[in-house]
């Protein structure tokens, strides 16, 4: 047990070190002195707008979680989902691997008093997995839509085509290996039934029209927050360029090698700004403030750690889409 925790601690320190190393290198390359100079010219109203936008994302994500919990017949109230999601977002940013917040959601949901069907952990885990899968689905749809527009900004060379071809082959090989391994796993009948039910919950047309707009809206909110932070610095940034860049930045921050997305987020923004012919230092400044605001707006999640709320029972939510799911 101690050896296992030692490995996890080492991995955590490695992630933190990678983040700090990449962030430091990015600041040096972009000009760290310019960041501190720009920081003194921030305009508060735009920052308040950005923080408000980041706060709005939490009820939307909580509603998406409740949606999948309800279709899986796992009791979950909207108020509980909201407080737990803010806490999970905070933990994902400050703990290694970026998944401990979601693990906490599963455990605290499954240990609720009314999870008496004997499969509380399975249902709670599937609800979280589907909720996160919906977010990735919406994000990648936007990425695939905006990625071709970068050909207007970045020179397209034969080497680029070769690199993309190699990336495609590697991705296909990983997917093939994953499918083979999954087919060799003998899952229980209960798990197989749950998996089929979950897949239907994600891709069924009547579900797509409910959860996919929420996921697309969340991408738009992150883009809007980035846009507001840019204007807080007084930088000229069109929303058109922001919607091209931010989804790619969000994808980069999901890489598990960096703590809370730090380092890779700033390096990605710097690269995209450079490709767009803008000052990389400006992009790095926006990315740093974006990361700080994301952390700041998730701090209220600590409130849900109070013992009184930690043991609060979950009840059926009364979300507007309840009747649609029963049809």
Offer a quick outline of the entry:
The protein is mainly alpha-helical. The protein contains 14 helices and no strands.
Your description of this structure?
The structure is a single chain. It contains 14 helices and no strands. It has helices spanning 2-30, 32-39, 44-71, 78-94, 100-110, 120-146, 158-184, 189-203, 205-233, 239-252, 264-275, 280-298, 307-310, 322-326. It starts with a helix and ends with a helix. Helix content is 75%, strand content 0%. Mean pLDDT is 78; it is low at 308-318 and 320-327. The chain has 327 residues and is mostly helical.
Blueprint of the fold:
Layout: H1 2-30, H2 32-39, H3 44-71, H4 78-94, H5 100-110, H6 120-146, H7 158-184, H8 189-203, H9 205-233, H10 239-252, H11 264-275, H12 280-298, H13 307-310, H14 322-326
């Amino acid at each position: 047990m101690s050896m296992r925790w030692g490995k996890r601690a080492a991995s955590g320190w490695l992630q933190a070190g990678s983040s700090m190393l990449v962030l430091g290198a990015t600041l040096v390359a972009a000009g760290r002195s310019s960041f501190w100079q720009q920081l003194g010219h921030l305009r508060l109203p735009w920052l308040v707008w950005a923080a408000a936008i980041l706060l709005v994302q939490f009820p939307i994500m909580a509603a998406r979680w409740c949606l999948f919990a309800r279709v899986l017949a796992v009791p979950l109230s909207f108020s509980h989902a909201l407080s737990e999601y803010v806490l999970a977002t905070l933990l994902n940013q400050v703990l290694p691997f970026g998944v401990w917040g979601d693990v906490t959601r599963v455990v605290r949901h499954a240990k609720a008093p009314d999870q008496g069907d004997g499969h509380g952990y399975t249902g709670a885990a599937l609800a979280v997995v589907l909720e996160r899968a919906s977010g990735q689905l919406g994000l990648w749809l936007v990425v695939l839509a905006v990625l071709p527009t970068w050909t207007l900004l970045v020179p397209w060379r034969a080497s680029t085509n070769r690199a993309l071809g190699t990336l495609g082959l590697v991705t296909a090989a990983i997917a093939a290996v994953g499918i083979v391994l999954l087919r060799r796993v003998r899952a229980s009948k209960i798990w197989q039934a749950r998996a089929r039910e979950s897949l239907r919950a994600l891709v069924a047309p009547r579900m797509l029209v409910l959860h996919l707009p929420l996921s697309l809206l969340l991408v738009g909110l992150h883009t809007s927050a980035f846009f507001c932070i840019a204007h807080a610095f007084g930088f000229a940034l069109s929303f058109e360029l922001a919607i091209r860049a931010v989804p790619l930045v969000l994808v980069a921050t999901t890489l598990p090698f960096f703590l809370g997305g730090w380092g890779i987020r700033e390096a990605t923004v710097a690269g995209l700004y450079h490709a767009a012919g803008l000052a990389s230092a400006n992009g790095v400044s926006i990315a740093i403030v974006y990361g700080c605001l994301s952390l700041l707006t998730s701090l209220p999640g600590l409130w849900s750690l109070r013992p009184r709320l930690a043991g609060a029972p979950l009840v059926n939510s009364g979300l507007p889409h309840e009747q649609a799911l029963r049809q």
